[in-house]
Design goal:
The chain has helices at residues 2-35, 54-71, 130-140; strands at residues 38-40, 45-48, 82-88, 94-100, 144-150, 154-161, 164-167. By secondary structure, the protein is of the alpha+beta class. A four-stranded antiparallel β-sheet has the order 3-4-6-5, covered by helices on one side. A three-stranded antiparallel β-sheet has the order 1-2-7, with no helix packed on it. α1 (2-35) crosses α2. The protein starts with a helix and ends in a 13-residue tail after the last strand.
Length: 180
Amino acid sequence: MAAVGTLASGVGHEINNPLAFIISNLNYVTGEVRDLTKRDEESERWQEVVLGDETRLGQVFLHLLVNAAQAIPEGRAEHNEVRVTTRRDERGYAVIEVSDTGVGISSEVLPRIFEPFFTTKPVGEGTGLGLSICHTHLQAMGGDIQVRSEPGRGTAFTVTLPPCAWSRTPSIPTKVGVAL
C-alpha cells in the first residue's frame, strides 16, 4: 500500500507541475486578450478586439501551450522558454503569438501540421487532431493561425482574430418594407 501511495504521489507531482505552468500561461493569455479592448472616446463606442467562443479560444491556447512545452527538451531549463505575446495589428486585429525555443518542426512536416490525424508522435501518444481543431475553431471565428519554425531553434504560432465593435446604445431596428 505504501508503494502504491508513493507511486501515486510521484505521478501526481509529475502531472501537476506541467499543468500549473500551462494554467498560469492560459490565465495570462486570457487576461491579455481581454486587455486588448479599448474605448473610442470620440464615437462613444466600445471596441472589443475579439468576438468568439471563450471555451474554444481556451482550447486553442491550451493546445498551443501544451505543444510548446512538449517541444522543449528535458534539462537545461534556464536555456529554454515558452513565450506568449499579444498586440494589435494595423487593422485592429488581435495578434497572439505562442513561441518556444524547442526542437522546431522540419520543413518536410511543416506543411502537414494542420491536417486532421497527422502526428509525429508515436502510436498511442497523439491523435493528430489538436492543430487541426485549432485551425478549424479560429477560421470559424474569422481568425487565422500561421506558423514559423526552424529546427533546433523553436516554433512560433501566430493567431490573428478580428475585432468586434458595438455601440454603447442599442441600435434602433430599421423597418423592412413588406408587400401586402
